[in-house]
Amino acid sequence: MDCSANTKNDQRPKLWTRNFVTVAAANFLLFFSFYQLLPILPLYIIEKFATDNATAGFIISLYTIGALACRPFAGFLVDTLSRKPLYFWTFFAFTACFLGYKTVGILPILAAVRFAHGLFFGISSTASNTVAIDALPACRRGEGIGYFGISVNLAFATGPMTGMFLYEAFGDTIVFAISIILCVIGLILVQTLNVPRKEKKPHAPLSLDRFFLTRAIPQFVNFIFVGFAYGPVTNYIALYAKELGIGGSGWFYALIAAGLIMNRIMTGRLIDRGYLIHLVGTGMTLNVVAYFILAFSHTPITFFVAAFLIGTSLGLIFPGYQTMCVNLARHDQRGTANSTYLSGWDIGIGTGILVGGSMAGHFGMHQPVFLACGVALVIADVLYFTWTSRHYLKYKLEG
User: Fold this and answer.
1) Is residue 125 predicted with pLDDT exceeding 50?
2) What are the residues whose beta carbons fall under 8 Å from the beta carbon of 291, sequence distance 6 or more?
3) 0.85 exceeded by the pTM?
């Protein structure tokens, strides 16, 4: 949509449509229900199945493997099938998995439930992102993507804390029950979405770009590096804080979320005004600085400053890379664009957790892990300025 005429009359196309607000709310409930479970699941598995930390960690990791395994197919399905039924039924299956955690009594079946949970999450979150982008006018897409991402950041900031509080006060049953209730509300919201049914068209021949947006390879590669650095933060920051003798590591995640939300609010409008390349470049460089501060932290001040800077940099990077991927895709490739963007993050996160755990075991501490993350981000920064940004300017289709 061309907004130039409307902009002259100070009447830009509406951003906060009913569809956009509804899908953002449903997305928040999807992610909140997941994040609420995150801190209590290891405790639940170890207590119920009398297993060790390594086995519990492996079962928990199957969620990421399931999400990653389905990402390329998720984009294909979203671009091929009617989006609302696909979104609803994968959200429904995601909800049913919460019941599976409580009802299964055999560890291998629990592992299968965990893998399926990641699988359905991967498809439903890709569908959610695509439905949201479909609801946005092209000239306000960056702003809209920024606001939509806040639904995930709010879930990240409040979900784990809520889940842990409920678990300590009432036990695990109430946590699973609330997750199911919230998902049911999300399903009702999805059912109210007004998404046009996809017209039946002759199927295009299968090709790689129906599963992976080949035009966005530089963005995909860069985002793997960003995810790689963030992976150890998700799993090892509490252990690193303990090594440094710093308490209150829960505030680390709260400060990341604060930085993310603050920057997402401001970044979107600047992206739509033509500053996309500069904003992502600033975020990439700031991310390097943040991880080196974290790697050489010796005091609570530098430790928590690093957290806020990580969040601030990701608030620039997330909407920037997603906007790039979408703008490099045809209209009928938006699902593939979103799955490519999310696949880079999933691969990076998973690789970062595995490499970080191996490095920490070898060195006996976590400082070298975060130093390695800083070095990886330096490589990503160089790649961005010499390859990724130039590639985008040359091949973008929209924006």
Assistant:
1) yes
2) 229, 306, 310, 370, 373, 374, 377
3) no
